[in-house]
Structure of Lysosomal Pro-X carboxypeptidase:
Amino acid sequence: MRLINTALLFLLLILSCKALGLKPQLLGRHTAQTNSQHTSVSYKTFYFDQQIDHFGFLENGTFKQRYLLNDQHWHKEGGPILFYTGNEGDITWFCNNTGFMWDVAEDLGALLVFAEHRYYGESMPFGEESYSNAKYLNYLTSEQALADFAVLIKALKKTLPGAQKSSVIAIGGSYGGMLAAWLRMKYPSAVRMLFCVSSYGFSWTHLISFSFIGEGLQWLSQEFGLCNPLKTPDEVYGFKAWLQETWVNLAMVDYPYEANFLQPLPAWPVKVVCKNLHFNTGVSDKQLLNGISQAVRVYYNYTGDAVCLNTSQTATGNLGFLGWFYQSCTEMVMPICTDGVADMFEPQPWNFQAFSDECYNQFRVRPREDWAEIVYGGRNISAHSNIIFSNGNLDPWMSGGVTRSLSESLVAIMIDGGAHHLDLRYNSEFDPESVIKTRALEVRYFKQWIKQAATTQ
Ligand SMILES: *[C@@H]1O[C@H](CO)[C@@H](O)[C@H](O)[C@H]1NC(C)=O
Ligand SMILES: *[C@@H]1O[C@H](CO)[C@@H](O)[C@H](O)[C@H]1NC(C)=O
Ligand SMILES: *[C@@H]1O[C@H](CO)[C@@H](O)[C@H](O)[C@H]1NC(C)=O
Ligand SMILES: *[C@@H]1O[C@H](CO)[C@@H](O)[C@H](O)[C@H]1NC(C)=O
Ligand SMILES: *[C@@H]1O[C@H](CO)[C@@H](O)[C@H](O)[C@H]1NC(C)=O
């Protein structure tokens, strides 16, 4: 999808069918809730020597994988290990935002471990060079990341006094939730059970995308109050991705209370934002864009402190945008299409070839469209066990989740009124009843499975 109209004036912004920027990831949970009775987050930071390549024997180097640990409530000799399978971003951010783990640690007598995903945060296999070329990026795959987790778990169980008998519960959301589920499937002896939050695949129907025409870069830049005005049509790509990401993120964090997970936002931010949008057909492109720019300001300027909008700062500053783009260009291919019916903008069919070309231009790699399904078994996971899939029905990713229980120990939970991973967040007095029940149910499954594991050992 290289742009297009060099003889501009006529700007074609297509928020189209591509994985770009669509981070499923969002999943950690947030911080500053208004109530203050949270268990405080405190952890020790460690670094583990990981093999750069787990599956071949030529590249024999190692790197330091960061992980965070809290043993304040841990009952050694039997207390479980809650293991957060880091996704695409700085692990401290996920750690700070996964209030659920902090809230249940005491009740379960659990050790908390947050493991960083390679190529994000501080866990860079080739230091500052890690993103410099395709050769170094070659080891950024979910398979390598899972192997990192499995190796780390084995080492922790061996070296931490009292951990030998501990059951390990993998927890994650979004891409991290997929990793948690896959860890259980691929390394069943490492993880006794797993808890995965939403997004086993991805949804396109709820995605809002834009397709609009403007008179030029300058108009757009002014309208959106951009810090760095758009100068070339190529920059529209970045702008487009930024908008798209903002949108999806906004829907994901549609929480019932004021929150500061990705950005400081009002309660039910989608409602607030939608006031600014004109859905009627017949509005001009400019009106449409004006509404969008107002909406975007709700996201970026709720506090009123923003002097201008900075498109280099993605809506999710703690997430690794480039890394996720690379992953979507290799094995995490997630076609995002709009059909013009279930969503509000123009139809854009998924164009694999165009996406592949864009990947090649950027990284010198081409996606393997079916690989993830082959290696992880797609949706037919009936042979597995002890997995909870929780989904929020307000989450734009929901329709990609596992939403129906497949067996007694493959449990799907639907949270009415829940946005992306609401259940992974801290308890809040504003939580809908459904979330409170969900968390309690999740803990009940944990306890049941821990007990079963103890008796079969
Ligand atoms: C790792 O590979 C390098 C170059 O291929 C080699 O010189 C070195 O001896 C190897 N190290 C180990 C521990 O195998
Ligand atoms: C997470 O919390 C710790 C301790 O409060 C803090 O030092 C760190 O900056 C936080 N990290 C992020 C990304 O918010
Ligand atoms: C952010 O809000 C403040 C207060 O309403 C306003 O003065 C400022 O222009 C806004 N910034 C942007 C970029 O819209
Ligand atoms: C925009 O964000 C980038 C990345 O954080 C930063 O380097 C740059 O200084 C920011 N620009 C402005 C005008 O704030
Ligand atoms: C799913 O996998 C199981 C075995 O793991 C197999 O028996 C079943 O036929 C598969 N179902 C589908 C729809 O492919």
Observations:
- Confidence is low (pLDDT under 50) at residues 1-37, 197-214, 336-348.
- The longest strand covers residues 62-70.
